[in-house]
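User: Okay, second chain of the day. Same drill as before: sequence in, structure tokens out.
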Amino acid sequence: MDGVDAVWLDLRGTFDSGPAIDAQVASGMRMIGVAIPRSPRDFYLKLTGPREQLLNAATEFQDFVKSARFVQ
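Assistant: Same drill. Structure tokens below.
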């Protein structure tokens, strides 16, 4: 991404949203994330949702991240 080596993450399974007392459990989920090292702060982007809904969105998300540029 903009000449920086980013770290991609693709998780699939059951997600637990929130603290143990109020946790909502959802199965069949997916999260695609990217960590972009950048000084003085790193950037993190993620896309989360039902696995079936992210099938087409995953490629679009990756293309979006790869096309992004930092502006000084």
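The beta strands are 7-17, 24-36, 43-50.

User: Thanks, on to the next one.
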